[in-house]
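#data-curation
PF: Archiving a pair of folding outputs for the training set. Convention for this channel: one message per protein, sequence first, structure tokens after, nothing in between. First:
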Amino acid sequence: MDTCKRILTLINPQSGSSDSVAKAIAGIREAWEAPDVDLKFQFTTSHEDGHGKATAAVDAGVDTVIAVGGDGTINAIGTALIGRTARLCVIPTGSGNGFARHFDIPLDTHDAALQLRQGRVLRIDVGRVNNTPFLVTMSCAWEVDIAKHFEAMPMRGILPYVLSAVYGVFTYSPQPFRLTIDDEPPILIEHPMLCTVANLTQYGSGVKIAPSAQPDDGLLELVVMERGGLTTLLNQLPSLLLEDPEVIPAFTTQPFRSLRIEREEPSAIQIDGELKEAEAVLSIDIIPSALNVMVPQTKHASTKQVE
């Protein structure tokens, strides 16, 4: 990618192993280091720190920001690039890596750097909930309890995710949701078990919650399941976790541009794998073609490429 001349690499040292971070740094240097390239490395200490450093770098003329971390780190850095010409490059070191998995970015950090150096730049949509952007998913039901339990697990991968989901079945207490989708009449969901808005296909760890979601169609995808669908979902769990599901019978899905979720009480939501306290009413919309992203050359040929 010859147009990358001023590059800032932002590394979350708390994400992944020291080996994966070291391989990422080695791969980035091998891929991008050159006499005519200004390549710098910095560590991030928090969401706010990563966002602030990315914003300052782009304001100073950096054309590419490489994010080394998980989906939370990518959100912090990527949302600083919304509406800018600078490119986001993702080297995954997180536990779920939903963003990287969607775009088939290698999970081996060295390979990811080398493939992205020869990659393409795509322009993708960004979701927004109560004016807070998200790149992958936003959730506000059972998924929040899953995220809470998963966050507390000492290990990562599919097994702790499944265990967290099982714990969440017993800890999550549904409250009614009133959904207004675009200009349609409101819908009352009495016992919502699952309520996710997807910009990309999956939460991470290969769990594809919205297999048909596209990052550049100007739409988000709502995925809802009532408590009565839980048995069906558990029966379909192998398909959801281990295969490439096209349809999960327990789910109701609908693409949209704007969504209002009215809840009885304020409650936490999940944004790109991170938990955030939120008001009772959630206003969700999409920012079309908002972010430039570097992806491997051979993947997602149908997605809009930046000229």
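PF: Second:
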Amino acid sequence: MSEPGGSGRGPGRPARLTRELVLDAAEELLDREGAGAVTIRAVAEALGVSPMALYRHVGDKDDLLLALVDRLAQRLPRPTLPDDPRERLLVLWVLLYEALAEHSWLPEVLARRRLMAPSVLWAVEAIHAAFRAAGLELQDAVLAYRLCWQFTLGALLVRAGLAAPSVQEQLRGAPDPERFPTLAAAAAGWRAAHGRDTYRADIAALVDRLLE
């Protein structure tokens, strides 16, 4: 196989392979088929090149995924943040949630590979600083961030359909009221909540408890 840009270039093959073209192809594959479908070989096939050609631009799959996560993080808007620490926290968490929700594969990648994109550190810094400004000690701010992040990631996984089924789904209908009276009474509430995105209200309630 000739080098990218050579005379042996096949139909659809890029004239010159670049890191951006590799990331574009990987992102398109992820959006179309999910995280499990993305390998160095699959991205190479999408570009019409050999896997070895990709290794000149990305080290391995983890390097590829981290580069993609970082590129998405670079697209995050930087809004004017409120002076009030609580309101600042809500703006930042909703910003992260909505940005991550745009790509259904992203929460799975973050949950399984524990990647941290350098380009999102400004938001992580701002969240820690807001917790501190609200009166939390540094270690408490770390724990509060960790709790909110785990909640946010869980909400994203549920939204993407990747988390465990709800109690109601596992029980396949209303539970036996004699054996499980509380669950049976809650069945209507489970049905009403199914499919609703309540993240904004939920993160507000969580932040309020953490700041008490």
